């Protein structure tokens, strides 16, 4: 999934007055490669292929992760779910790439199934929505006063899968749109938009602005006098 | 296996293509000399689509930019980091030194922070102020003409401030501050800390027709495909190669400088990493710019009857006086930056738009040298790690920690762009006992003996880090921010970074007028072999509370012009 530069920027730009793209967009490199090739050295490419070919999480574990991801970030009126954003596939890859996640994840999934079996005589993923949420409610919040002494491993596990889900989701196009991140394209930055400044207890000072770049002259080749004063 | 000798005779052989070697290549090739540029890493051009990471999105990486394969993340443009496969280094005793190597054309300049600060008059003569370390044999007035030329050749933005020890230059105009930077200005002023526009070698304005102008993607660490930031390959080596005077040898790991019966250098011996065979190049002059520690390693490994302790090491000073910048950092939560009503692109240039140069007098403090402050934050592009433990931020506003679903989405958005940080970068005192030396028992995959580090911080640096944290807290208080994490105490060296972690290692071949206490003279020429020069940060007598790159380049330009003159006079 590789957006072209234009597609990516037009898709997320929100029309900032101070954020002119005129004249710079065509100078910038354009992502045209459709092979998920992101500037790797040959050794790094080989590593990626090796990791992709490996298997760690089994089918049952992956199915459980998919259920959990969509509980953590279900779809909204304006944004897709974690499943739709491909988060389970990201989790599948990242536990192989960063093996320190493997034991906590595998053990946590087994804990979850054990808990579901004890309470409802079913593994977690096959439980009803109500059964699943009964367990999730017990592990989705910290327990500093130790009111639920047997939930400790579950709370720790849920924190891990929540972290992986959030990071996996907000590093996708869908996540960018939900968050409102509008950068990573060629533009001419010319300061914080005035309406944003107006909402805050700070402002630009004339003396400071006088030092700053005049973007209308950015293409004029710099020349200085002997004292280092910029002439152009 | 026989060593393969090249029949060619070069005027100059340059080892290393980073800031120092790149500048030497430009000056010497432009002067019409026949140059061999020998680089241990592979060829790299930021324009090359195959290796470009600039403007890539996190989802183009299956690990979303995580640091599995590159210590600063998938998109950071450094081939090699604290570790290089097959090329170890070791630590002596409880030393924990970090050494970053970028095995590529242009070296570490492809990903560096572009912070381009001149050393000031005091920085060259700091012993006169506090009696510590040594003065440089040269002063600001010797280097100023080269800083001036450098500013115009490479381009650096900044502002004229008239500060006594942070000299002005020929600046391009700086960008306007970002929102969190405006808050920083407010907090810093309340704390009595000076703030000025940052000084980075990024083109906010055109300086020539060959290089582009910044388009504000904030990704200078990915190396600019428009050549709008300074990288040694795109800004020095490629222009130098246009004249046809440069033979570029990449994947070529220099083992030794070869010397003759008179002790003069006749060339270098290197391993071609592709066929793993040894080759020799011959030249009239050898210029070492392999980085402070790599150059020291080459010298110490270049033992001969004439140079039994290694080339240039009759003083036993090679590898000694190694010092890195000090560093400490802290982050904070800024309630006023929560719940941004309108998101907008605030990527800006690659790095901070403002900074604080050293503003105090050390005579009134319990540490001898200063530090500057770097600022980070804003609505940056998410990558791996984004949103980790985001819900815990609720503790600062009395909200509920934990949860999922709509609440979680709201947490992510509420706190996006509401954290920022300050890093202090300061001057350490160069110590003769802080050093790199050859490990007597370990070789790399090319059979070359490796470096062993022996380095300890002193209370000069620890007290400075302690002061940095006091400053961070005062500034954060002044801007109405909540300091995050706990203040590091004596048990953690007050948060002082491990030596090497700031990646400003200097001093291993320091310059001086006395051959018994220094490795090079003030022209960065070995006392022991007059046709060998050093153009990396090895000859630095002291670091200053500045970053070293701008001074590496100014001094490399100065040394290279001297080499041209001396060759004309047949003095080498």
Word description of this protein:
The complex is a heterodimer of chains A (232) and B (572). Chain A has 232 residues and is an all-alpha fold. Chain A has a domain at 52-179. Chain A has 10 helices and 2 strands; from the N terminus they run αβαααααααβαα. Chain A has a two-stranded antiparallel sheet. In chain A, α5 (102-120) packs across α7 (152-169). The two termini of chain A are 43 Å apart. The relative contact order of chain B is 0.19. Chain B is an alpha/beta fold. Chain B has helices spanning 19-30, 121-124, 127-130, 140-154, 179-190, 232-241, 292-301, 406-415, 459-478, 549-568; strands at residues 4-15, 35-38, 90-91, 196-197, 246-249, 252-259, 265-272, 277-288, 326-333, 354-356, 371-377, 419-426, 435-443, 449-454, 482-483, 532-534. In chain B, strands 1, 2, 5, 6, 7, 8 and 16 form a 7-stranded mixed β-sheet that branches. A 6-stranded antiparallel β-sheet of chain B has the order 4-10-11-12-9-15, covered by helices on one side. Chain B has a 3-stranded mixed β-sheet with strand order 3-14-13, with helices on one face. Chain B is globular. Chain B is 20% helix and 17% strand. The model of chain B has no long low-confidence stretch (mean pLDDT 97). The two termini of chain B are 33 Å apart. The interface between A and B is large, with 98 and 97 residues.
Topology:
The complex is a heterodimer of chains A (232) and B (572).
Chain A: H1 5-12, E1 19-20, H2 42-53, H3 59-72, H4 87-97, H5 102-120, H6 129-139, H7 152-169, H8 173-179, E2 188-189, H9 194-198, H10 206-209
Helix pairs in contact in A: 3-4, 3-7, 4-7, 5-7
Chain B: E1 4-15, H1 19-30, E2 35-38, E3 90-91, H2 121-124, H3 127-130, H4 140-154, H5 179-190, E4 196-197, H6 232-241, E5 246-249, E6 252-259, E7 265-272, E8 277-288, H7 292-301, E9 326-333, E10 354-356, E11 371-377, H8 406-415, E12 419-426, E13 435-443, E14 449-454, H9 459-478, E15 482-483, E16 532-534, H10 549-568
Parallel strand pairs in B: 1-2, 1-8, 2-5, 3-14, 8-16
Antiparallel strand pairs in B: 4-10, 6-7, 7-8, 9-12, 9-15, 10-11, 11-12, 13-14
Helix pairs in contact in B: 1-6, 1-10, 4-10, 5-9
